[in-house]
Amino acid sequence: MRKKLWIYLALLVVIPGLIFTVSCAKKVTQAEPSAEETAVEPEVDTAARIAEEQAAQEEAAQQWEMAVEEDIEEQRQAEDAAKEAEMQQDMAAAKQMFENEDIYFDFDSSALEMMATEVLKRKADWLFETADASIIIEGHCDARGTEAYNIALGDRRAESAKAFLVDIGVDESRLTSISYGEERPVDPVANAEAWAKNRRVHFVIE
Amino acid sequence: MRKLNITKILTVVCLVGFMAFLPAAGAEEYEYIDISNPFLRKIPTAIPRFKNMSENKKGEVLSVKLADSLSKTLAFTGYFKMLDRGAFLADPRNPDITAARINFRNWTVIGSELLLTGGVAADDDYIELELRMFDTFQEKMIIGKRYKGRESNLRQIIQRFCGEVMFHLTGTRGVFNSRVAFVNAEGGVKEIFISEFDGYNPRQFTTDNDLSLFPAWSSDAKWLAYTSYARGKPDLYIMNIKEKNGAVVTRKGILITPAWVPGKFELAATLSFSGDQEIYLLTGRGKIIKRLTTSRGIDVEPTWSPDGKKMAFVSKRSGTPQIYIKNVVSDRVRRLTFEGRYNTQPNWSPRGHSIVFSTMQLGRIDIYTIGVDGKDLRRLTEDQGDNEAPSWSPDGSLIVFSSNREGISKIYVMTAFGTDQRRLISLPGAQTSPKWSPNITNQ
Amino acid sequence: MIKRNRQHGSSKRSSRAVLVIEMAHERRLIYWAFGISLICHLVFFGAFLVAQKHKPRKFPRQSVINVSLVATPSQAAHSSPVSKKTAPASKAKISKKKETRKKTVKIAPKPEKKTPVVSTSGKPKVSLKKKTFKASKVKKSALKDIEKKVEKTSSERRTSALDRLKTKVEAQEVEKRSEPKATQAQPSSNRAGDGSGQGGRVGELIDIYRIEIAYQIQKNWAFPEQLAGGRRDLQTMLVFKIMPNGEIRDLFFTDRSGNTHFDESAFRAIMKANPVDPHPAAIIRPYVQMGLRFTPEGVK
Questions:
Q1: Contact at CB, A144 and B360, closer than 8 angstroms
Q2: Could you tell me which residues come within 8 angstroms of residue B223 by beta carbon, excluding any fewer than 6 positions away?
Q3: Does residue B156 sit in the same domain as residue B240?
Q4: Do B161 and B234 lie in a common domain?
Q5: With an 8 Å Cβ cutoff, are A146 and B389 in contact?
Q6: Contact with chain B for residue C49, Cβ under 8 A
Q7: Considering the domain boundaries, does residue B409 fall inside one?
Q8: For chain C, which ranges sit under pLDDT 70?
Q9: Which of B119, B166, B370, C81 has its CB 3.0 to 4.6 Å from that of B174, i.e. a possible disulfide?
Q10: What CATH number does the domain containing B133 carry?
């Protein structure tokens, strides 16, 4: 009984091991690095098959590639351009989103709330993607309270946003903080709604 | 004989005993009714039109103009109730200006306790002024001065005489040699302006076309420190007022709320380069001497005691902004304000005994004074919009502040007791953050 | 016109002078007077030592405030501004009454017996005055309470106590009524000329008159708070006589604050009010003496 169990266990380890090595070897030849390597183990067979088919197709294509060389080149350029535009659009959108999305605070508080940390994580993602960008973190307050204290409070708000980003791994040298206190409200109306909008940290890409 | 002796001895004993207890008992001999509430909190004062001693048109015009100017300047202090000239019994056409000629009954009857008279003689170039102050009940002259100057000096002459009047009453020369710096906001730009003590002649001081905030006078009134965003972030500017040059102190973070140490070329200000808003002591050139606060959290708005040994400031160390006092000699810190959840903008009285500050309660900001010992909290403003940024006059008798009681924020002035609240500056736009200068000695 | 005679300065000195003159006249009487006075002093100051908590200065003030609150309805409207600051004390009045009632009962019996004899001497007045002071006041509060009896029917025990008190007070008043007869010829005595020696109603009338005059003077008092230099302990005391026609005479300081402006302001207030209202018809007196204590406490 016990021996049998051991054999099964051994098989359980060995067989997937074998399968794994096989599929890996094939994949390398395909030169198609996949991020899902480990995740697709159970579908190794189909993946391998598709890869083989692709290889065959490529072989066939090579036979008449000379004839259509120029066409493809044009097409590629057009595609690239489109992609570029699309990417730029995406980037601009991301950038815009980055600059438009503020984080908000409670009255007389510089503590980051859940919502704010979510937003800050997105900011960090964008900063990782856009490695060359530096940003200014602006701390703002609502009109309530007094001027000087609010500049200090805005400074704290900007600092706490900055500290969070640095903690996530954003290089500190890319971040500059500045406090405007209550000097630059987005909504100068004196009501709770406007005050809530004004108690914010705003991000500007340099 | 023996009986007499006893009588004598007894008499002596009793007399001695009586005398010994006199100081305590003497005052109790009468039944006293208490009066503890002056009906009028000002001195009823009469200033009749001046005597025209030159008998020319110019003198005629000046005799009224200068009397009005004297009346207005003195009334500014809040000490005087100027009596209506219409009620005067003395002949207005030919005022008597010397003690020998004045019929003091004319003045005591209308309730005037002080009488100020003037004589003016004007020629083409110079104006001579004789100014006197009389105690109408004692029927004697208290002050008598003669001045000579050009027409352009008249304001100054009147102010100097008012200084004499205040010196007699209070022992200080009042506020007549002081100025007020304030922030004027127009279209998102804030510039610092400086006017005379009574709001006269406001002139623009900064021209950064950005945000300039928190003006602070050095105790010789020669330097003005302030925060400006001219370089994109709140930096500290320390400027010589006359020469308009000085230092710009820039560091990471904010540099705000400067406050000069009395009698020194040093100032405290809040810097946040460490990531925490702390108060530092700087030289007049902007070099850090030492750190004055050490608690984590916001520490702003330092203000110095007149002897420069203590500093009041705002700290959030207890969770809400409150005012604390630090003894810079012993390094001990104690909390001053306990009422309310938002006490900021402290300003230490040049008389030393109290601190004026603002409290926010239910979204409204009002001005209070509190004794340096934490006792004697008094409310000075109420039900008149937000009242902020109080600053003492150099003699500690008046307080300048900003208020939005008429809509947009303007500069107002009141007595140290909250009475006589009136507008100081009449400029378009919004004005905030007034700071009263020390008295300016002749430079 | 009234000459300013602050130079009289210390009333103490002048009263001492009077004392010496009297001595020459009536040695025997003085002998007794001093003897009893000494005892009274000992008792009085002994009492001080025992009851240190009773601040001697505070005492007359409290009582006076109390007096100012007892105005006849017609005068109430007038004199209310006087007690503007003291108005919140109305509640405390009742408790104060109780307090004084107790005190009278305690202190009164002893000096009572001696007072008729001593009345001419200046010294015992310190203690005597204290007593009479209370007496008139207690009486007034008692009367007032009786007026309110209808409202206070619930506490019958209390009213009966008040009745008892009233008779007691009246007895004291009667005793004192005999006193001015003996002293009227000697106006040098402080108390002789003024009202509290008179019968109950007139005494009260004089007190009301005094309060009315105090109000008239208060209306003339001008003092800028800034001149107090932040001090609230200033106190200046003046004494003067009001002639039947309302003229103020013999005004002098009995205590000065040390702040010239403050002292002057008080002096001017009285001078400005002069002449005040003449005596009411019911007061038949050569003059009414009164003292005023000015303090800046009301200055907010």
A1: yes
A2: B217, B238, B239, B240, B241, B246, B260, B265, B284
A3: no
A4: no
A5: yes
A6: no
A7: yes
A8: 1-31, 33-34, 40-41, 43-200, 230, 297-300
A9: B166
A10: 3.40.50.10070
Among residues B274, B264, B265, which one has the least CA distance to residue B299? Answer: B274
Residue B33, classified by CB atoms within 10 Å of its CB into exposed (0-12), middle (13-18) or buried (19+), is buried
The amino acid occupying position B331 is D
Backbone angles phi, psi at B292, to 5 degrees: -100, -25
Position A12 scores a pLDDT of 61
Q: How far is B420 from chain A (nearest CA, A)?
A: 24
Q: Where are the domains of chain C?
A: 6-298
The model's pLDDT over B136-164, given as tens digits with 9 standing for 90+, comes to 998 999 999 999 999 999 999 999 999 99
List CB contacts (< 8 A) between A145 and chain B: 321, 342, 344, 360
Determine the Cα–Cα distance for residues A67 and A72; give it in Å rounded to an integer: 10
Report chain B residues whose CB lies below 8 A from the CB of C296: 36, 38
Look up the ipTM and state it.
0.88
Instruction: Tell me whether residues C218 and B37 touch, CB distance under 8 A.
Output: yes
Q: How many CB pairs under 8 A join A and B?
A: 70
Task: Suggest the residue from C79, C225, C254 to mutate for an interface test with chain B (most B CBs closer than 10 A).
Answer: C225
**B256/A148 CB distance under 8 A:** yes
In whole angstroms, what is the distance from residue A127 CA to residue B172 CA?
Answer: 63
Helices B57-76 and B154-170 pack at an angle, to 10 degrees, of 40
B9 interfaces chain C, CB cutoff of 8 Å: no
Question: How many C-alpha atoms does C107 have within 13 Å on its Cβ side?
Answer: 25
Could you tell me if residue B17 is inside a domain? no
CB contact under 8 Å between C230 and B10, yes or no, is no
Alpha-carbon distance C2 to nearest alpha carbon in chain B (angstroms):
12
Query: What was the pLDDT predicted at C193?
Result: 42
Amino acid making up residue A57:
Q
B214, closest residue in chain A (CA to CA): A148
Asked if B201 and B331 sit in the same domain, the reply is: yes
Cβ of A149 and B365 within 8 Å? no
State how far the Cα of C186 lies from the Cα of C166, in Å rounded to an integer: 30
Domain count, chain B: 2
Q: Do B198 and B292 belong to one domain?
A: yes
- pLDDT attached to residue C40: 63
Residue range B190-215: average pLDDT? 96
Identify the domain containing residue B157 by its residue range.
Answer: 43-170
Architecture label for domain A101-205: 2-Layer Sandwich (3.30)
Touching B: C residues 231-270, CB under 8 Å: 237, 239, 254-255, 261, 264-269
DSSP result, B234-283: -EEEEEETTT--EEEE--SS-EEEEEEPTTSSEEEEEE-TTSS-EEEEEE
- Say yes or no to pLDDT of B251 above 90: yes
B388 in a structural domain? yes
pLDDT per position as a tens digit, B76-85: 999 999 999 9
